Amino acid sequence: MNIALISPSLDQYSETFINAHKEFLKGKIFFYHNGELPTMLQGKPIIYGRQKRIKHILKGYYRLNDFTLEQEALLESFQVNKIDLVFAEYGSTGETVAELCEHLKIPLIVHFHGFDAHHQNQLIAYQSYKKLFRYASYVIVVSKKMKTDLINLGCPVEKIVYTVCGPRKEFFDITPDFSKPNFLSAGRFTDKKAPYYVILAFARVLKKLPHAKLIMAGEGELFNTCNNLIRYLRLEKNIKLVGSISPDELRKIMASSRAFIQHSLTTPEGNSEGTPVVITEAGAAGLPVIATAHAGIADVIRHNQTGLLSEEHNIDEMAANIILLASDADLAKKMGENAREIVLRDYTMDKHIAILNSAISKALS
Q1: CA angle 185, 186, 190 (to 5 degrees)
Q2: Do residue 298 and residue 198 come from a single domain?
Q3: Cα–Cα 20 to 30 A to 288, which of 126, 134, 219, 298?
Q4: Do residue 155 and residue 261 come from a single domain?
């Protein structure tokens, strides 16, 4: 079984779920990338033969081409590699390749992740995914809100499969040290993750608990803004921005943290999360999660059981939640144990991959 796994980008450090799909989906994986209509296959350009390019140009003169040159190249690559099924990461990718899959009668599965299901500019640009919803065998969603939103856009409910991308097994091996009020936040520095709100909330925490520490990992367009905010508030000794880090480095920091913090929100353009993988990674590590009741986070985190949730934009409420766990290591440990138990039961990588492989088998049957 040959599967074309398509992603717009190659090895984005924050897209750990795509690497997991490359590694664990059954069948032989052909990884296409570099744009919604991919032009690369496993690091090499998809080349369309010289004679065929000339033929395409001649046909174009008489307006006889059904597809662009780039589409023709991808179609030929699918045929040469005897692709049995296309697995598209992101709705925009799925919409772009849907007509090609239909032309070759290849089953299509599309995995939505977050912004692709909610951002208004995306929905307008890709015509609310009409082709995708009509042709795809299955549409993968990662939160209950996403399921509702895609149904409202017109996706047939029988095509929707709900699954959360779980953590790798190494995260379950972490034994957190709850002895110090150290906290961790990790993710891209973007509007929907609102890292500046985490900083402002922690500034309130430090007025009561001046020895608390926060490490923030990740990169993005708001990184310098957040760095300047920390300097302005004179919090350099308590809040450290460490940039992008490896999974091993993330696990090391988790082992010395008391809780994980994230202030995700819905932007004015409608952009929002799916279910951030790092939320399940933190739970697997035995850390309680302090976050907003946003999108899939509210599906995974049980308030007062596995973590503490607050409303979006409410930094006072988030600060109070941080103070509560900073002041009570035993409570943090108990919530972390509960979080690990629930992630182990409901949100493992094995369960996620099994659901995807089942959808692949059904699409091919």
Answers
A1: 105
A2: yes
A3: 219
A4: no
- Are 356 and 317 members of one domain? no
The model's pLDDT over 55-96, given as tens digits with 9 standing for 90+, comes to 545 455 445 567 888 999 999 999 999 999 999 999 999 999
Please write down the long-range contacts of 16-22, taking CB distance under 8 Å and 24 or more positions apart.
Answer: 16/165, 16/247, 16/277, 17/113, 17/165, 17/277, 18/89, 20/165, 20/168, 20/349, 20/352, 20/353, 21/87, 21/89, 21/111, 21/353, 21/356
Q: What does residue 336 show for φ and ψ, rounded to 5 degrees?
A: -65, -40
What is the rounded average pLDDT for all residues in the chain? 93
Question: Within this chain, do residues 176 and 141 fall inside the same structural domain, yes or no?
Answer: no
62, 46: one domain: yes
Q: Edge-to-edge, what's the strand order for the sheet holding 239-243?
A: 239-243, 213-217, 182-186, 259-262, 289-292, 307-310
Strands (E), 264-306: 289-292
Rg for the chain (alpha carbons), in Å?
A: 22
Pair 34, 46 in one domain: yes
Q: Based on the fold, state whether residues 184 and 259 are members of the same structural domain.
A: yes
Using the 8-state DSSP alphabet, how is residue 170 labeled? G
What tens digit of pLDDT does each residue of 162-220 get?
A: 999 999 999 999 999 999 999 999 999 999 999 999 999 999 999 999 999 999 999 99
Domain tally for the chain?
2
Please give the Cα distance from 334 to 162 (Å, whole number). 29
What is the rounded CA–CA span in Å between residue 181 and residue 190?
A: 26
Residue 312 amino acid letter: E
CATH number reported for the structural domain that contains residue 276 in this entry: 3.40.50.2000
Domain span at residue 272 reads: 169-346
* Predicted structure pTM score: 0.92
Average pLDDT along the chain, 365 residues, taken 10 residues at a time? 93 75 95 94 80 52 68 94 98 96 98 90 87 97 96 96 96 97 98 98 98 98 98 98 96 98 96 96 98 97 98 98 98 98 97 98 97
CA distance 55 to 217: 51
Half-sphere exposure of 277 (CA within 13 A, CB side): 20
